[in-house]
Design a protein that fits this description.
alpha+beta; binds S-(P-nitrobenzyl)glutathione
């Protein structure tokens, strides 16, 4: 059955791979599932046809036959459950890998998103400069803890899993801030994720959709 995901028709990051369709593409590439991508404009995202797929009017979505999903956590989990390659067979190791997916999305991503929002949306506010150290500190608390847990391991819990895919995807959002540079093991962890052939294919595919017009 054909898998179709949605992505920005044109991503505001110009193809840096920061939009969330990249993590879904990466998961599909890891498990070797072909997929099609339908680009959606910001306007179309808020129209009834897309809202039927995604109640919050966002990308990405995932369609496979009569199954329609939204939320990257649910989509990557679905892919990982249906296909070999992203979750261990051992039941406890599998539960731990899923725990890392949740940790990435509910503990690590929120302060990183807040940092992005503070930079992009609040730069002109009179309290912006005073607030930034607090926002950065909240990110640092989580990076300190994650760095301590990862130590000198390659991945968070044994072999690469959907937990690492999600954690690396979330940490990639920090790249523009330069904050990862203070954490050599996390920087190396992210680089290991980016070096995976499946990530490279996903990145190239999203870039191909977002290349600025020549000339
Ligand atoms: N919790 C949802 C999930 O994980 O799927 C969040 C989905 C989401 O935030 N989607 C964003 C979206 O559709 C795109 S990824 N935004 C449009 C809207 O809400 O109207 C977030 C994103 C957007 C742009 C960049 N960038 O250009 O750097 C990076 C990330």
């Amino acid at each position: 059955m054909t898998i179709t995901i949605t992505a920005f028709e044109w991503s505001p990051d110009g193809g840096k791979g920061l939009a969330r369709d990249t993590r879904v593409r990466w998961a599909l590439e890891e498990v070797g599932q072909p997929y099609e991508v339908r680009g959606v404009s910001f306007k179309a995202m808020k129209q009834p046809a897309h809202l039927a797929l995604h109640p919050f009017g966002q990308i990405p979505t995932y369609q496979e036959g009569d199954l329609g999903l939204f939320e990257t956590g649910a989509i990557v989990f679905h892919i990982a459950e249906r296909h070999a390659g992203l979750l261990p067979d051992d039941a406890n190791a599998r539960a731990r890998a899923i725990t890392w997916m949740f940790a990435a999305l509910s503990t690590i991503e929120p302060p990183i998103l807040e940092l992005g929002n503070a930079r992009l949306l609040e730069g002109d506010k009179p309290w912006h400069e005073a607030r930034m150290p607090l926002v950065k500190d909240r990110v640092r608390v989580r990076l300190d803890q994650l760095s301590a847990r990862l130590g000198d391991a390659d991945w968070l819990d044994g072999a690469f899993s959907a937990g690492d895919l999600m954690m690396v995807s979330v940490l990639l959002r920090l790249k523009p801030s330069g904050m990862l540079a203070d954490y050599p093991n996390l920087s190396a962890y992210v680089a290991r994720g980016e070096a995976r052939p499946a990530y490279k294919r996903a990145f190239e595919a999203q870039l191909a959709m977002n290349k600025p017009p020549a000339g």
